[in-house]
Amino acid sequence: MAGNFGSPNPTQPLSVGNVVSAGLRLYRSHLKDYFLLALKAYVWVLVPIYGWAKFYALSALISRLAFGDLVDQPESISSGQRFVNSRLWQFLLVLLLLFLIGIGIGLGVIIFSALLGALSAVLVGGVGQQGNPATYLVFILIAFALGIVALLGILWLVTRFYLVDLPLAVEEGIEATSAISRSWELTQGHVWRILLITFVGFLITLPIQIVVQIITSILQAIFLPLIRDGNTIFALLYFVLVLGLSFGAGALLIPFWQSIKAVIYYDLRSRREGLGLKLRDREV
To answer: What is the pTM of this model?
Structure first.
């Protein structure tokens, strides 16, 4: 199967279209198995801490299975699940580390926004005394440009951690910290291509998200008036229906994104390390 995904020049990365098409083929060919795994993962979300680690591990398992197909080493679900379960606490530690990294990024954004706001107040105050509208416009454009740069910087930084779960789910000798380092290494020089792939994937999944939003709006229109009347049964029914709809939609979408991620991981590893990849030593 791997031979079907090559680019014209073996030293060049797969095109955005090739990555998305390969992900879609993997998604369609294993939809039932991947959907059930994703649905199982969502059920675990309801269990704090341990369940969150299970969710992350089961999501990564989908990518592991997809990657196994890409390197012509298909693996059974039970075999892959044993492997990711053996690293369950490493997945939890990765979640904790990514959470701390997210806090750091958030604090950086807050500090940057505060500094930008203070600078704008000082500059606008100074301009206000001069009463020059053109200067106001210049400062607004500068602030807007800085905001765009900050947003791109955040996207770039977040994308460097895009593949963290793949090394942990696939490679031997990987722990939480080394998985983060591995993602940073693999995504170097490919951030904007990954972001473009993500954008194309978002457009593909947009119809499903629109349908889910429409159904949610219909449920709100039906149940909210009944809930306002104090009917707890309808409130509980509404909660169950919305939760089931969210879990079902997520179980449809996660396999697609994890398949896309597996193709990106396969592509980046093949370009850096050659096509002779091994998922792991396993009995034939």
So the answer is: 0.84
